Peptidase M50 (Myceligenerans indicum), 390 residues
Amino acid sequence: MNTKPSARSAPPRSRGWVLGHVAGAPVIVTPSWFLAAVVLTLVFGPWVLRQMPALGTAAYLVSATFVIMLFASVFLHEVAHALVARARGQEVHELAITIWGGHTAYSGGLARPLDGFLVAVVGPLTNIALAAGFWFALQGRGAGFDVPALLLAAGAFSNAFVGVFNLLPGLPLDGGQILEAVVWGITGSRNTGTVVAGWVGRLVAAGIVVWALVWLLALPLANGMAPDVSRALIAALVAAFVWAGASSAIAAGRRREAISTLRAGELADPVVTVPLGATVAAALAARGVAGPGEAMSRVVVVGHGGLPLAVLDDGAVSAVPPEARELTGVDAVAVPLVAESAVGPEVGGQDLLRHLAASSGGARLVPVVDAGRVTGILDLARVARAVRGT
C-alpha cells in the first residue's frame, strides 16, 4: 500500500485485469491478488468460526466477505493517493491491487517536500477514517453480536491496523515517504531524505522480526503455550518485503544523488575537429598522439559553421592501408552524428538523461557543443557506467 514515484516516461503496466479508471489511470487487479484473497480467506475462516461457531462452513463465506471489504479499503487507500498525486501535478499511471495490498504509480517529479508529504499521508488517513466509520456504525447497532457486527468490528480493526502500520516511518511504507519529505524539507535534499527513510525502513523490518521472535514464538514457549508459527511466518514475509523496499529506496536515493552530479562536459571525451572533405591522414595528424595518462582525442568531422557531422571510427581507420590514407576521405570512415542531438557542457543530472533519451536517436555518441563550438564527444556507454556505478 505504497505510492511509487517513477520516471517521467510511463513505467511498464502491471499485468492483470483493468476494472476501470481513476484519476485518468487504469485500476488493475493483478493475478497475485487472487492468491492473496484465497489465502486470507482460509486464514480468517477459523477465526470467524471461533467467534460464531453456529456458522459452520458458512464462516468461510463471511471470511471471504471480510477479505473483499479489506481490499475495497485498500482500493480507497490507493484512490486517495492517486487523486492527491494528480492534484499536485503528477501524472498517475496505474492503481494496482496486488498480493501485498496495492500501489499507485505516478510520475512528474515531486517539486516540493509538501507534495510528497500530502500524497503519502492521505492513504493512511483514509484507512483511519474508514476505521472510525466502521467503529461508529458498530456502536450504532447496539449490543447484539451477529454477522454484520462481526464484519463491522473486523473492518474497524483491519483499517486501523493498515493505517497505523503504513504510518511507520520507513520506506517503502507511506510513513517512510512522509519521513523522506520531512528530511527533504529540513536538509533541502530529497536524496538525503530517501536514504534516511530507507535506513529507518530497514530498522522497521528488523523490528518486525524481533517482535515476531519474542511475542509470537519465545513468550508463548516460556508460558508453556504453542508458538504462533503461522503469524510469525507472515510477519517474516512482511519484514522481507519492507527490507527489500527499503534497500531499493537506499539504492535509488544514492543513484539519484550521483546522477545529480553528472555533467556532460565532465563526462565527454576531448576532441579535435577536421573539415568535411579532409583525408584520413590529415585527421590522424590533427589528433596526434596522446601522452601518458591522457585520453585519446576523438576526431569530429565538422561542416559549415563548425556544425558537428560525424566522428571518426577508429576501427574503420585501422582497416585503411597506410598508403591509402592520403587518398581516403574522412567521410568514408566516420560515424554520422544524429542531428539536433548536441548537448551543452553544463547540462547534467536528470536533464542530461532526459535529453539523451529524447534526442540521441539510439546513437551511442553525442556531441557536446559550447557557444557553437564542439568541445567533446559524449559516449552514452560511459554515461550508463557512471549511473550504474552509484
User: Anything to note?
Assistant: The longest helix spans residues 190-222. The CA atoms of residues 202 and 244 lie 8 Å apart. The chain has a mean pLDDT of 92. The first strand starts at residue 2 and ends at 6.
